[in-house]
Amino acid sequence: MTTIFTKIINGEIPAEKIFENERIIAIKDIRPIAPVHLLIISKKEIPNLQSVTHQDLPLVSEMISVSQELATRFGVADGYRLLTNIGPTAGQTIFHLHFHLIGGRHLGAIA
User: Fold this and answer.
1) Any idea which residues carry the catalytic annotation?
2) pTM, 2 dp
Protein backbone atom coordinates (compact mmCIF):
# COMPACT_ATOMS: atom_id res chain seq x y z
CA MET A 1 0.00 0.00 0.00
CA THR A 2 1.49 3.32 -1.03
CA THR A 3 0.28 6.33 0.90
CA ILE A 4 1.03 10.03 0.60
CA PHE A 5 3.42 9.54 3.53
CA THR A 6 5.33 6.87 1.60
CA LYS A 7 5.66 9.32 -1.27
CA ILE A 8 6.95 12.00 1.12
CA ILE A 9 9.43 9.52 2.65
CA ASN A 10 10.63 8.57 -0.84
CA GLY A 11 11.02 12.23 -1.84
CA GLU A 12 8.28 12.04 -4.48
CA ILE A 13 6.20 14.75 -2.76
CA PRO A 14 7.74 17.78 -1.05
CA ALA A 15 7.16 18.39 2.64
CA GLU A 16 8.63 20.62 5.31
CA LYS A 17 10.78 18.07 7.12
CA ILE A 18 11.79 18.92 10.65
CA PHE A 19 13.29 15.57 11.65
CA GLU A 20 14.48 12.45 9.89
CA ASN A 21 16.42 9.33 10.70
CA GLU A 22 16.43 5.77 9.32
CA ARG A 23 13.05 4.88 10.89
CA ILE A 24 11.08 8.10 11.37
CA ILE A 25 10.31 11.33 9.59
CA ALA A 26 8.57 14.36 11.08
CA ILE A 27 6.96 17.11 9.02
CA LYS A 28 4.80 20.17 9.54
CA ASP A 29 1.12 19.49 8.86
CA ILE A 30 -0.10 21.30 5.74
CA ARG A 31 -3.46 22.03 7.42
CA PRO A 32 -2.49 22.89 11.00
CA ILE A 33 -5.18 23.18 13.64
CA ALA A 34 -2.84 24.89 16.11
CA PRO A 35 0.32 27.00 15.97
CA VAL A 36 2.33 23.79 16.37
CA HIS A 37 0.98 20.84 14.38
CA LEU A 38 3.58 18.24 13.46
CA LEU A 39 3.28 14.75 12.06
CA ILE A 40 5.64 12.07 13.36
CA ILE A 41 5.57 9.29 10.78
CA SER A 42 6.95 5.76 10.79
CA LYS A 43 8.97 4.99 7.68
CA LYS A 44 7.76 1.40 8.01
CA GLU A 45 4.36 1.04 6.39
CA ILE A 46 2.10 0.08 9.28
CA PRO A 47 -1.60 0.92 8.75
CA ASN A 48 -2.22 2.22 12.29
CA LEU A 49 -1.47 1.70 15.97
CA GLN A 50 -3.81 -1.30 16.17
CA SER A 51 -1.64 -3.04 13.54
CA VAL A 52 1.58 -2.63 15.53
CA THR A 53 3.21 -5.96 16.38
CA HIS A 54 5.39 -6.80 19.35
CA GLN A 55 8.41 -6.37 17.08
CA ASP A 56 7.26 -2.82 16.19
CA LEU A 57 7.11 -1.61 19.80
CA PRO A 58 10.68 -0.21 19.78
CA LEU A 59 9.71 1.89 16.75
CA VAL A 60 6.62 3.26 18.51
CA SER A 61 8.73 4.03 21.58
CA GLU A 62 11.19 5.91 19.39
CA MET A 63 8.33 7.85 17.78
CA ILE A 64 7.23 8.97 21.25
CA SER A 65 10.79 9.95 22.13
CA VAL A 66 11.05 12.01 18.92
CA SER A 67 7.72 13.63 19.81
CA GLN A 68 9.09 14.66 23.20
CA GLU A 69 12.21 16.15 21.59
CA LEU A 70 10.12 18.06 19.04
CA ALA A 71 7.75 19.34 21.73
CA THR A 72 10.77 20.79 23.51
CA ARG A 73 12.25 22.23 20.32
CA PHE A 74 8.95 23.89 19.36
CA GLY A 75 8.32 25.26 22.86
CA VAL A 76 5.23 23.24 23.77
CA ALA A 77 6.71 20.64 26.14
CA ASP A 78 4.57 21.99 29.00
CA GLY A 79 1.29 21.35 27.13
CA TYR A 80 0.55 19.51 23.92
CA ARG A 81 -1.57 16.72 22.55
CA LEU A 82 -0.11 13.60 20.92
CA LEU A 83 -2.71 11.61 19.07
CA THR A 84 -3.26 9.01 16.41
CA ASN A 85 -6.48 7.98 14.73
CA ILE A 86 -7.26 4.29 14.31
CA GLY A 87 -9.75 3.44 11.58
CA PRO A 88 -12.22 5.50 9.57
CA THR A 89 -14.73 5.86 12.41
CA ALA A 90 -12.01 7.61 14.45
CA GLY A 91 -11.18 9.94 11.55
CA GLN A 92 -8.18 8.10 10.09
CA THR A 93 -7.77 9.10 6.45
CA ILE A 94 -4.16 8.07 5.78
CA PHE A 95 -3.54 4.45 6.66
CA HIS A 96 0.11 4.81 7.60
CA LEU A 97 1.13 5.01 11.27
CA HIS A 98 1.66 8.59 12.38
CA PHE A 99 1.14 10.79 15.42
CA HIS A 100 -0.10 14.37 15.44
CA LEU A 101 1.77 16.61 17.87
CA ILE A 102 -0.54 19.58 18.48
CA GLY A 103 0.15 22.55 20.73
CA GLY A 104 0.86 26.22 21.03
CA ARG A 105 -2.62 27.21 22.17
CA HIS A 106 -5.13 26.17 24.81
CA LEU A 107 -6.60 22.91 23.54
CA GLY A 108 -9.26 22.30 26.17
CA ALA A 109 -10.45 19.02 27.59
CA ILE A 110 -11.62 16.10 25.51
CA ALA A 111 -15.02 14.87 26.64
Assistant:
1) 98
2) 0.95
